[in-house]
Structure formats: C-alpha cells, structure tokens
From TrEMBL:
Domain ABC transporter: start-end pairs: 21-239
Coiled coil: none
Organism, as annotated: Microbacterium dextranolyticum
The keyword Cytoplasm belongs to this UniProt entry's keyword annotation: no
Protein name: Macrolide ABC transporter ATP-binding protein
Lineage, opening ranks: Bacteria, Bacillati, Actinomycetota, Actinomycetes, Micrococcales
Keywords, ordered alphabetically: ATP-binding, Nucleotide-binding, Transport
Length: 239
C-alpha cells in the first residue's frame, strides 16, 4: 500500500527556542496496523512536551521512533540537526545511553540493587568511573529529596519514591532529551504530583527537553505544550 503524504499532518512547532528534536514525515506499520501515518513534529531545547491520545493512537510508537528504539518505515528523525534514524543499532543504542533518558510507567528498577546503585547504572554503562558515578548518583538523589533512601532496595520504597528514583536515573547522565512513557500511570494522585513536580522542576533547572506520553490531562498540565495523536496523526496542539 502506498504511504500517505506527510502533509496530512501539520508541523507542530514551539513558538520560540532552538530546535533539539525534529521529526519529518514519520510512518510506521506493524503488519497491517499503521501506527504512524505521516507525523511532523519539532521540540525545542528545554521544552516539556506532552503527547496525548487514547490507547492505540500511536503515541508510544511515536516515542519509540523519536528515541531511536525503532526505525520509521518512512521519514526521518534529527537530534540537534543530525539525522539519527538511519544509524546502525549499536550507534542508536549508544545514543540512547548518552543523549536520552527514559522513565517508564512502572519504573523498571532492578530489584536487587539499592536506589543508589540503580541510579549509577547508566553512568557505569557510559564509562564513568564507579567513584564518580556514585557521587553523581548521590547528588541527583539528594536533588529529588531521596538522600535518606539511597541505600534502600526498591521493595522498601513507596511507589512514588521508586518512581522518583527512576527519574533520578533518567536525569543523572544529563540527557539532551528525557522520554517519559505514562510516568505516573501506576501512582495515586498525591504520589503522581510529587513525581511530576520532581521531574519538571529538575528538567527546567537543567534545561532538559522532556517528551511525556500520557492519556491523563492532569499529567499533561505540567507540560509547556500539548499535541494530540489520533489514528497515527497529530490532530492538534495546545500552547
């Protein structure tokens, strides 16, 4: 089947600021299911963008393509003006380790490691010496109000505390872009608020660009801007 032209989706641009992440004409299918149908999107440095949409709309596929987890069938993705979708798997894996941070719905902390050791993992994988990695992990945990919990295992933490550890792990490498996929979907409203405040405040302090995938308007309210994905297309934007 012939791909639809990318012009079916408008280009959603931030009003001001240097463009860090740019997607053009993204199409992606899984068998007969067309998850993305011509998406153009630009995200500015330091911007917090919420990508909203119902289940099955294509918003998580969009995140995975933007983050280099999967390649688009058509179109391209640029980070700081450099195309990344055509990189090999090893290069994209390195990019995800050094330039991107990730927060998932259930945190995905390693259960047998302390909060401190969980936060050091991306640093160690990037080649940072263990002593330096531990210092940076302690500093980041302290910034998020978790200094007293650094040596606890994930099972000893509340859901909100564990998710803030996941935020610390995502921020510790000082990524250019942090991707958060339903980061508060498993939390009650009070814990969700603490996680979102921690994430957005630290991101703004560090001028980290954030892309949040969510179906929850309360989560999207913490963003600077919203776009809506419906049936694999961007259908609107709110500034």
């Amino acid at each position: 089947m012939r791909a639809e032209a990318s012009t079916v989706a408008p280009v959603h641009r931030p009003e001001t600021g240097e463009i860090v992440l740019r997607a053009q004409g993204l199409h992606r299918s899984f068998g007969l299911t067309r998850a993305l149908r011509g998406i153009d999107l630009e995200v500015a440095a330091g911007e917090i963008l919420a990508v909203m949409g119902p289940s099955g709309s294509g918003k998580s596929t969009l995140l995975h393509v933007l983050a280099g987890v999967i390649r688009p069938d058509q179109g391209q993705v640029e980070l700081d003006g450099r195309r990344i979708d055509d990189l090999g798997e090893a290069a994209r894996a390195r990019l995800r380790l050094t330039e991107f941070g990730f927060v998932f719905q259930f945190g995905q902390l390693l259960p047998d490691l302390s909060a401190r050791d969980n936060v050091t993992i991306p640093l160690l994988l990037a080649g940072v010496r263990r002593g330096n990695a531990l210092v940076r992990a302690d500093e980041t945990l302290a910034e998020l109000g978790l200094a007293d919990h650094a040596r606890k295992l994930p099972a000893q933490l509340s859901g909100g505390q564990a998710q803030r550890v996941a935020v610390a792990r995502a921020l510790v490498t000082e990524p250019r872009v942090l991707f958060a996929d339903e980061p508060t979907g498993s939390l009650d409203s009070l814990a969700a608020e603490k996680v979102l405040l921690s994430l957005t405040e630290r991101a703004r302090q560090r001028r980290t660009t954030v892309v949040i995938i969510t179906h929850d308007p309360r989560t999207a309210a913490y963003a600077d801007r919203e776009v809506v994905v419906r049936d694999g297309r961007l259908s609107g934007a709110t500034v």
